[in-house]
Amino acid sequence: MRIGVILIMTSMAITPMGDAFSKTLGATYSPFFICFLRYFLAGCLALVITRLLGRTIVVPRHDWFGMLFRTTLVMGAMTCLIAALSMVPLAAAVGGFLIAPIVSTILSAVWLREEVTTPKIVGSLVSFAGTVLIARPETGLNAGGILAISGGVLLGNYLVATRGAAAVSDPVSSLAVQCLLGSGLLLPIALLAGPIPFSSNLITGGLGLGFVTAACHFLTVAAYAREEASILSPFLYFNMIAAVAV
Fold first, then answer.
1. What was the pLDDT predicted at 167?
2. CA distance 30 to 158
3. Which of 76, 129, 192, 234 holds its CA 20 to 30 A away from the CA of 152?
4. Rounded-to-integer distance, Cα 130 and Cα 240, Å
């Protein structure tokens, strides 16, 4: 099996653990604060890892705008998902969010000129059908479902943008910069969203979010640096199996 596929499946397997932490914290805190906390702690962890590895955070000068653009996409996607998690069951939110593989497959063909072969199309459709059977979405869309789908569209765009920047993007640098930059963008909104009460759940949930987010973000960026977006897209649905288990 290709290393990129192994990396993305590993990322998808542990992602729902972070979603579970987010859903638990969602009973007390706003989606903006949870998303800020998630990426701030992940960014701090990335800096520690970078220091331990003796590496330097590098963002090419010509990729500064691209880094900001990708960060905005992933922050928007995660905020939509976290908001959806506070409204609908975890599996239902993840099910709506998983429109991302279809979006990334289409966009990778349009923008990156990746070849869309029959196996890629069949793989995406079969995986999506399995997700629908597991999530069993309701006939009508509610606010949580709309937010989840919106987040999936943003995530699909982010994945394609990440693949497009693979030649100039270092996974460790991307992890640190995107997490800290994203948390900085969200902090003012998080502070305005409402009071932030301190509790033991904030510590345990925050630390859990930070570790899971750092691992998932690094694995995803590393996977898209090694493999075409349209090849990896069907394997994003592995997230659904893990979400049902969680």
1. 61
2. 23
3. 192
4. 9
